[in-house]
Design brief:
Pfam families: DCC1-like. This protein is mainly alpha-helical and 451 residues long. The chain is 58% helix and 4% strand. The longest helix has 33 residues.
Length: 451
Amino acid sequence: MLNNYFLLARKVRRFLGENTKPVLSVTDFTHASAQIITITRFFYLFVTFYIYSSSSSILKFGQKIPQDPLWPIAILGEEVFVGHGASLFIFSFVTALAASILPASLLFRAATFLSLFFITAFNNSFGSISHSMHFVVFVSFLFIFLPNQIKNNNYPTRIDRLSAIAVFWWIQSILLLSYTLAGTLKVLSTGTGLFVTDGLMRTVLTRAIPNGGSPLAFEQIVSNNSLVTQFFYLGNIYIQLISIFVLFRPNLHKFYGCVLIMFHFGTFILLQIKFTPHIIIWGLFFVMSPLAPKSFSLLGTLKALPIVGLTFKPFGSNTKEPLMNEHTAYLVYDGECPFCTNYTHMLNVKDKIKDFRLINARDGGEIVEKIKAIPFDINEGMVLVYGDDYYFGSDALHMMSLLSTGSGFWGTLNKYMFKSPTVAKVVYPFMRFGRNMTLKLIGVKKLDYDS
């Protein structure tokens, strides 16, 4: 099931036009899951610090009765914390600290969520609601579903690593979706007024009224430079609207995380709205994102931006470099599949690459074990391994066409038909369906993939 989940995510990324490696390398995959453990520890350390810094308010829980209790407090009873403020503080502090030390412990992760959940609910049960901690509570809830085993500072099995990355991806998705919805609501509520040149000035001054008219010099700058500030206002809307697209473009993670951190600094400077927890969250889950590429390209990042990136397309080249012949290429296929076997035997790539080897996945071996460690199932298609790059399914078909010499009928058909990645993507699902049906008809069992 997790394999299908990652395949779906990859398809969405491709549909949105991202041109990235089709499969994480074994090194990247292993590093990503290990980094998630580090991020988890830092998250619980932040929660520990938050509870410590909120000690005075938590200790007073037993001295006040909620005026407008939220449903968690209403269910437990409005006086549930009376006389228990100190106990709640000690419990929440110890469990959060323990979770940072032992992130594999389901008990400590669940206890931290419950304490955060009720502390946040209680703090917002007095007639007004602050949204600053809502996402922290949500993250603590999703962290409950992290794997419960850690060995050598990493998750020991492939399924555990897949699960950890899936949880991390869901956290990113909800955060980004919430910002996109916020931007959408602003557009719907503002309408044509969105393009009025004093939009940001009106927002700042409206916020300044309940604040007692802050004397910040920034408000003077905003009021005297409406055209410049309107540019930043529209930029704010743009940043929020495109948030969900960042989910499927990992090369934007670090850049976007930094932009949103600056965005929240800006909301504090101009509007005096504090979202300190969100700054921490953006730092942990995007600036430190284990799914982001190791190298950073400013031009590549700008090109990846929705709509705005189109203006940067003429700069640089998006053409894929041909494969060099310095590495051994491995094509891993199911030897029990007649289609796969015939396809591999008709290939002719010797003139294009130094060393090309066919590997039957059912025979096992080092390369097969490496493929089993990444989030794609050999049962769903052949895999081309070249250096640190892994090409799966339609991508493998496309890359093999680029390597083909084009000799013979099949070689010519393969070279020119699948030279187009679009054609390969369209045709491959039908080829896979025919393969799966054939294996069922001849009674061949699937590879024992997770063994």
